[in-house]
């Protein structure tokens, strides 16, 4: 920019001097002498002439004082070279590349954050659905821009639309799901027993319906009938029974639940995480009970599991229910003065499990 300004100033000054001094004979004679001297020197050169930036600047500035048809006679370079030098010195005035960034303007960070948030909170929304929601909020943005933002964030811009994930299904339908699974127990004498456990997803209520060494399909179907009788009118709120593909269930087992208008859903082969809630409660029974006690026989196992079932449903807190047991609907009144209450302990299963309560 500074060079361009100096170039324009020099041209203006020379134009003024040319007007003032154009008629002086002495200057014309001096010019003829210099041109003749220049011709002599050029005849003595053997290689190409190299012009410094200052020489180019000077010749380009002087070209404005000479008629263009005489440039070949006056200047040591061609007219095309003079014009190229002139454009080079005047071009910075109109060059805005230093002030302009390449490509279209970047998307504001707030919009990018909002796009990612909408995608994460609505897994079935594609980039066009998100673009429409942004337009409704007053943000004008192209669908291709939304697509690129999601792609850069590692989010599929065109997600599945066939249905919810298994996790979404279980969460949305938790109130209507009861799950079943077998729990095996090895006795002190090496005999293997089987217990059938049911878990209501919504309340986390546990039902251990029976224990046997021979879990036939007929026995399993009877456990389904026992559960239906135990649930009573609560079966009206259930819609699905979730179980694995174990052959011990059988058709009769499913028919019992079909009679109560429950749909039986079987998990995929070798996919225990599909029935994760039931798998977890069986793991809890092992960690809190079976790993610390020797089971002698079938009757002993039935008694121990029944006692633990009562503890699990009536006293054991559950994170999924805000630390409430399944059979408790609300927390007790807050204690503001602990010194006025004494806490009593109740030993369960010979002290293996402890329950605590305030003294009456």
UniProtKB/TrEMBL annotation:
<dbReference type="GO" id="GO:0015074">
    <property type="term" value="P:DNA integration"/>
</dbReference>
<dbReference type="InterPro" id="IPR009057">
    <property type="entry name" value="Homeodomain-like_sf"/>
</dbReference>
<dbReference type="Pfam" id="PF13683">
    <property type="entry name" value="rve_3"/>
</dbReference>
<protein>
    <submittedName>
        <fullName>Integrase-like protein</fullName>
    </submittedName>
</protein>
<dbReference type="InterPro" id="IPR036397">
    <property type="entry name" value="RNaseH_sf"/>
</dbReference>
<feature type="domain" description="Integrase catalytic">
    <location>
        <begin position="160"/>
        <end position="333"/>
    </location>
</feature>
<dbReference type="InterPro" id="IPR001584">
    <property type="entry name" value="Integrase_cat-core"/>
</dbReference>
<dbReference type="InterPro" id="IPR012337">
    <property type="entry name" value="RNaseH-like_sf"/>
</dbReference>
<dbReference type="GO" id="GO:0003676">
    <property type="term" value="F:nucleic acid binding"/>
</dbReference>
